[in-house]
Amino acid sequence: EPLTGLNIVCFPSGRLPMSVLRDVLRGAHDKANEAKVSILGGHSIDDNEMKFGMSITGSVSPASIWRNSGAQPGDVLLLTKPIGVGVATTAMKRGVASPALCRAAVSCMSLLNKYAADALRGTGLIHACTD
Q1: Residues 34-62: what's their mean pLDDT?
Q2: Considering the entire predicted model, what is its pTM?
Q3: How far apart, in whole angstroms, are the C-alpha atoms of residue 83 and residue 97?
């Protein structure tokens, strides 16, 4: 279970208005609340490109860890989010993504992995997993 988080921000303060940073941090706060994570603080630097992430700590029983190394022949590949979001975000950064693609990518990236994990936990079907 996730417990605490730290915001990690790279922000081009000379190129973007601070309202952009405020909106990003508000969104992070909302998602942290949805995940029941307490944000304890964070780190920020001035950078040429906007970057944001969270470092999350939590607890898990060693017997319940899903590793990325246990795939077995015959396992089903389950995608909880579409492939291609990285291509979409690159198009967004370059200003060539359609509004519909932008909405779809943001919607996908805004969905917590928690819901897929909750649906699969306890099924005994997971041999390997990655985000």
Answers
A1: 95
A2: 0.81
A3: 16
